Amino acid sequence: EINKKYSFQIAADFDTRVNNLHQRLRYDYYNESCPLAEQIIRSTVRELYDSRPDVAPALLRLVFHDCFVEGCDASILLDSDDDIESEKEAPPNESLRGYDVIDIIKSEVEEACPGIVSCADIIVLAARESVLMAGGPFYPLFTGRRDSMDSFIEIATYELPSPQDDLSKTIESFATRGFDERETVSLLGAHSTGTIHCNFFSNRLYNFSGTDVPDPSIDTEFLDILRSKCNTSNPTSAPSASPSLSPSPSSAASFHNPGMKMDYEGPRTGFGTLYYRSLLQGKGLLFVDQQLTAGEDTETWVRAYASDVSLFQRDFGLTMIKLSNLQVLTTPAGQVRLNCRKVN
Ligand code: HEM
């Protein structure tokens, strides 16, 4: 219900916001050349999700890491070869996953319409489906992106935000991509879903920034849960967590350390709300998440989203549209890769 109601609102806002910005992308770009493209992507994500629900967070994170680095051009998917130094090898991308999922979707789409649908469009459309699967809103997307012929490992290394960043750094980093504070707070609501491994927040648990004490912004009970969950002397232990957070199953990510599963999503509570409520209770996992409550304006948005799931869903949909349109390549730039991992 919530999804339906807010997709109408998002659609209305979408026309005014996006039309002027992206003349060269079109609504239903593959209407004639590959009319089933969006449907194939949708059904493939849904089928995969049925047996592997972790594909949804994987694909949602993937669109962020693609679009934030030189735009939504599928540069994140290129493997290293003689000419390419893959973005996949940049440290912030180390635990990124879902490349195999994109390969599966691409092969389904190629079977129907060879050489027509770009990997860049597949990433944004698959992420949209993932948001829906996680209980988030539907948002309309233009298509017609083309794929880059290069990968940008340096930009990925230095410009993707770090989980250790403080609020001003995060705001600045998102501002360089055109996002204001409200949009930044809403985008981080993506951390409602998926798994966050201990190594990304273990610095907060004992000796925070050389202070010999834990990060004071962590709720004390929550601190105990995190410590026992991340106890490195017993990395396979999976002590019970609070009702809203359950330990992750053995992770498909490249890190063989435990993590916390962000179990906040679901149609009942609405994707987002519990994430923001937990921030208000000092239960953010990453420093960067918890920092959203450290600024007056950002905290106002955290409070707003914690109490109004519909407002969050609307804002999140609009911000995902904006993210999906960052610096796109359109004809005659770029190409439609036949294999998402290689330049043609
Ligand atoms: C300041 C910005 C951000 C930072 C520093 C950040 C950092 C991280 C880190 C460290 C993880 C844990 C990865 C792991 O344990 O393997 C993570 C997970 C995730 N991030 Fe972010 N993130 C940011 C913004 C975003 C945005 C804007 C999105 C999407 C719109 C996003 C989507 C996700 C998702 C869905 C996961 C779970 C991935 C999974 O389960 O594999 N993040 N992020």
Q: Low-confidence parts, pLDDT < 50 over ≥5 residues?
A: 234-255, 264-268
Distance between the termini: 43 Å
The CATH superfamily of the largest domain bears the name Peroxidase, domain 2
Overall shape: it is globular
Ligands and ions found: protoporphyrin IX containing FE
Q: Which oligomeric state applies?
A: single chain
CATH architecture of the largest domain: Orthogonal Bundle
What do you see in this structure?
With 344 residues, the chain is mainly alpha-helical. It is 44% helix and 5% strand. It contains 13 helices and five strands. The protein has helices spanning 2-21, 37-51, 55-67, 99-112, 119-133, 153-159, 167-175, 181-187, 220-229, 273-280, 287-290, 296-307, 309-324; strands at residues 26-27, 142-143, 193-197, 245-247, 259-263. The strands form two sheets. Strands 3-5-4 form a three-stranded antiparallel sheet. The chain has a two-stranded antiparallel sheet with strand order 1-2. α2 (37-51) runs antiparallel to α4 (99-112) and α3 (55-67) crosses α5 (119-133). The relative contact order is 0.19. The model is unreliable at 234-255 and 264-268 (pLDDT under 50). Protoporphyrin IX containing FE binds at residues 57-58, 60-61, 64, 95, 97, 161-163, 170, 187-188, 190-191, 193-197, 200, 253, 259, 286, 288. Heme b binds at residue 191. Substrate binds at residue 161.
In short:
With 344 residues, this protein is mainly alpha-helical. The protein has helices at 2-21, 37-51, 55-67, 99-112, 119-133, 153-159, 167-175, 181-187, 220-229, 273-280, 287-290, 296-307, 309-324, and strands at residues 26-27, 142-143, 193-197, 245-247, 259-263. The model is unreliable at 234-255 and 264-268 (pLDDT under 50).
